[in-house]
């Protein structure tokens, strides 16, 4: 999972589910949730689920990874005092 608060919305989503529903929940809505987050937060988000057989556990692990990636993306990095991390104009 990679999060970039770039001001440019983008979602790269690679999560396959072994079934279409979890109870009454349509798993297609899972991607739609992240697309909405990306669009409104103006972030770039890459989600890759490497493996899994239980749709419920796949959703749990993706949400947990998303939370951890958000925390890392928002934490203050003391090594970067006064510097805005960007490659704009350098690539």
Question: How would you briefly describe this protein structure?
Answer:
This protein is of the alpha+beta class and 91 residues long. The protein contains 2 helices and 5 strands.
Task: Describe the protein's topology.
Elements: E1 2-4, E2 10-14, E3 21-22, E4 25-26, H1 28-41, E5 44-48, H2 55-74
Parallel strand pairs: 2-5
Antiparallel strand pairs: 1-5, 3-4
What this model shows, in words?
Strand 3 and strand 4 form a beta hairpin. The longest helix has 20 residues. The strands form 2 sheets. Strands 1-5-2 form a 3-stranded mixed sheet. It has a two-stranded antiparallel ribbon with strand order 3-4. The model has no long low-confidence stretch (mean pLDDT 91). It has 91 residues and is α+β, with helices and mostly antiparallel strands. It has one domain: Ribosomal Protein S5, domain 2 (2-Layer Sandwich), CATH 3.30.230.40. The chain contains 2 helices and 5 strands, in the order E-E-E-E-H-E-H. Helices cover 37% and strands 19% of the residues. The two termini are 23 Å apart.
**Any idea what the CATH superfamily is called?**
Imidazole glycerol phosphate dehydratase, domain 1
Biggest pleated-sheet summary? 3 strands, mixed
Overall radius of gyration: 15 Å
Number of helices: 2
> How far is the first residue's CA from the last residue's CA?
23 Å
User: In CATH terms, what is the fold-level topology?
Assistant: Ribosomal Protein S5, domain 2
Note the run of SSEs as H and E.
EEEEHEH
Dominant shape: elongated
Uncertain residue segments? none
Strand content: 15-25%
- State the total count of DSSP E strands: 5
